[in-house]
Amino acid sequence: MSRALERYAWPTWRIEAVRTLAAVADALHQGRHDQDAVLRHLSHGQLGLDDLVVSRAQHGGILLRAAEFIDIAHVFLHRASAVPLPSTLDLRCTARFMDDPDDPDSRWIYVLLSTERSSMETMFAGLRDVASYPVPTAADVADDPEAAERAEVWTRVLQRYRSFSPPSILAPDLHLALDLIEAIGAGDRDDELSSYSKVTVSEVVAEVALRQGASAPDDLRAQLVAPLTQ
Q1: What Rg, from alpha-carbon coordinates, does the chain have?
Q2: Is the pLDDT of residue 1 over 80?
Q3: DSSP E strand stretches across the chain
Q4: How big, in percent rounded to 5, are the helix, strand and coil portions of the chain?
Q5: Which of 133, 135, 209, 211 has the fewest CB atoms within 10 Å, measured from its CB?
Q6: 92: left (phi over 0), alpha (psi -120 to 50) or beta
Q7: Lowest mean per-residue pLDDT among 66-75, 149-158, 183-192, 216-225
Q8: Cβ(56)–Cβ(67) under 8 Å?
Q9: Residue 159 and residue 192: Cα distance in Å, rounded?
Q10: pLDDT for 188 beyond 80
Q11: What is the mean pLDDT of residues 88-104?
């Protein structure tokens, strides 16, 4: 399973990271006259320009600011007092693997996939030997005998892990700012960076252009990477 996730899941997750980076970069570009307000809106008032230490020290442009914001926001989420990010910006993804105490031969492994990304759910459901077995709601159980059976199994499986955490696989750590610093200085080495699963300037700019449609300026790339002093 870990090899399958490495081969299929994390490339899908990388695409989602590019889309999320483009979404933040687009918001900063559209609101470039008050980027602090944009960041505070996206983070529910928890983060602003003053928190972007690296990109501001390097006079980084919009892309670098967007990347550092996403990196910091995901670290910030681990604080007990943190307000969750909007689901469109949340790149966290965890697969938790559990067995059934009533199945001593371990014929089945039960997996809880935690993600805000439908593409990750679709990818995971398409892996070989993976079958959908969703945790039912109370309404499901009331109307469906099969759902009632699933509820019984999940209750038994989850009960075992009340006192300790099951084995888990998490999405890669975010280092979008480091990727962007390297990509901005890499010139035309996009293919090389992509081969190492690193985010490139070209693909983010292309995604921002898609979001802006006909209103995208001809010099969009230059505007997104141009140094900023404030």
Answers
A1: 21
A2: no
A3: 93-98, 110-115, 168-170
A4: 55, 5, 40
A5: 133
A6: beta
A7: 183-192
A8: no
A9: 47
A10: no
A11: 91
